[in-house]
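Field notebook, page 374. I keep forgetting to write these up properly, so this time I am using the form the group agreed on. The chain and the ligand, 6-O-phosphono-beta-D-fructofuranose, are recorded exactly as supplied. Prediction of the bound pose follows.
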Amino acid sequence: MNAKKVGILTAGGDSPGLNAAIRGFGKSAIGHYKMDLVGFRDGITGLVEDHYEPLDSRALSGILTVGGTILGTSRDKVHKFPTPDGVVDMVPRVVENYERAGLDALIMLGGGGTAKNAKRLVDAGLNVIHLPKTIDNDIAMTDTTFGFATATEIATEAIDRVHSTAHSHHRIILTEIMGHRAGWLTLGAGIAGGADIILIPEIPYTVDSVAATISERTKRGSTFSVVAVAEGARDVADTADYEAARLLVRAAKTPEAQRAARAHLKNVEDLQREHTFKLARELEAATGLEARVTILGYVQRGGSPSAADRLLATRLGAAAAELVADGHFGVMVAAHGELAEPVALDEVAGKVKLVPADHAWIRAARMVGTGLGD
Ligand code: F6P
């Protein structure tokens, strides 16, 4: 029987652990199951443009510790692919390329957007397995995602480091942390870094509450405060405007209404993009302390993956190879405790895992006196 031929790609934002996952899958598929492996360049774009190259053991050597992705990535949507002639549904093209390449399966490493792309290709009849990657940890049905542990380490170290300038200058230091629409990364790093206040999208804040926490600290003799602010965090008023704009998009029935609603949502997002700087100014006015802002940005996605992410990426990658060998497709390989288990993509695609109000991390933060802005 001919060896199974498998394609692999990375899509969405880069993250530490992608190469570890490519290696985990590849070494299992090639070494253990004697499969043939090809890597598609730049995510969905490589599938559409039929741009791939063989991946052998040599190509997988030495990549466990390398940040980013050796394959490149993109954020393209397979059913709304940008071309010079406008947006095109490229699912038929991808099916054609998959078949011409003689693939038996396709492994897609990515976040929530990739889960949706994977589901679309499954619905078109392809044998697809998704591996959960993102520093945001916002993918449903899995305990965690590779990239999250490393980004938490990076953001925690940053919070540790800004404590120096905070206590030296008696300042409020606001550190903005990634996470898209979820607060996991900010909450985890905020707790680990001992932030005095942690602001996440799931808990709209009031400036009065944040200022009151800082004033309480001042009364107790603390001359500084460190605030971990999620990039998606908003005050109560901005949250209402943002949710109303998102509701308009969901309610829009016609293409024209969709376009107008999306334009309005983008305008609201643009207006609110500088929310951490706005909060800094408001806190200076409310407390009389100097405030400074540090935006961590892409530093959180850079560099070598932590040991935890290397272990997770290897486990999930190896489990994916076993599923290919067993002919089990249409799933995401989820981390469930020490297990790596298949979960139907129907249960993952289109869902976002946000921080529940009663989550253990929330309770722990409140117990140690961290202000959450509410
Ligand atoms: O999903 C990972 C992430 O880093 C988010 O935390 C962030 O909002 C987004 O990607 C940034 O997207 P881009 O890399 O396209 O600027």
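OBSERVATIONS:
- The radius of gyration is 22 Å.
- Residues 13, 75, 111, 134-136, 178-180, 231, 301 surround 6-O-phosphono-beta-D-fructofuranose (CB under 6 Å).
FOLLOW-UP: compare against the apo run.
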